[in-house]
Amino acid sequence: MRIVIAEDDPLLREGLALLLRAESLDVVATTGTPDGFLDAVGTYAPDIAIVDVRMPPTHTDEGIAAAVEARRRRPDLAVLVLSAYVEQAFATDLLADGSARLGYLLKERVGRVEEFLTALHRVADGGTAIDPEVVAQLFARTRPDTRLDRLSPRERDVLALMAEGLGNTAVAERLVVTEGAVHKHIRNIFAKLGLAPTDRTDRRVAAVLHYLDDAQRRA
């Protein structure tokens, strides 16, 4: 796995590089600027990029803008975005623009090495990884009288883990239930949210988008 790291904090940038190299992963370049990141992507053709949301010169959304541009140039590039705190709009846009090979983690997650590496590999393998804290904060902001109120507590747990990017096997392991039980809960979620099967819509992504969009709209 070839990795480019774009992070303007030199301590975190080099700490990430050391961590990943200790795991025998190939960090081909590190950079502290959006332009340097785009140059590195063009030069080294990485499999995945780890990108800070806020980078110079204004420290607003330069990292996100650079990641979007990098994906435009190389649609197969996996991107794992790091942020110091929950950025609701980006968490929603992450899925709305297509969830494959994309991740969004809070920087504090890096200190939980096993969780961070699991998310990194999941994204690199074509999946999605959304920080559990993002999911929790968005759920906490929901208000009564929404379709989500039809879900049982266990169904809400399943949907929250789906939003983190976990597949059915991982959801079953996290909740200590069978995969058959997870399948049943997901069918109930689709039914209660009115998500009928179609050729054009991924119901799993649609279910997650429903509650993320609803939480942001009602926050």
Automatic annotation (TrEMBL):
InterPro entries: CheY-like_superfamily (IPR011006), Sig_transdc_resp-reg_C-effctor (IPR016032), Sig_transdc_resp-reg_receiver (IPR001789), Tscrpt_reg_LuxR_C (IPR000792), WalR-like (IPR039420), WH-like_DNA-bd_sf (IPR036388). The keyword Lipid metabolism does not apply. PROSITE patterns: HTH_LUXR_2, RESPONSE_REGULATORY. It comes from the Bacteria. Keywords: DNA-binding, Phosphoprotein, Transcription, Transcription regulation. GO terms for biological process: phosphorelay signal transduction system; regulation of DNA-templated transcription. GO terms for molecular function: DNA binding. Gene3D superfamilies: 3.40.50.2300, Winged helix-like DNA-binding domain superfamily/Winged helix DNA-binding domain. Residues 2-122 form the Response regulatory domain. PANTHER family: TRANSCRIPTIONAL REGULATORY PROTEIN NARL-RELATED, TWO-COMPONENT RESPONSE REGULATOR. This is DNA-binding response regulator.
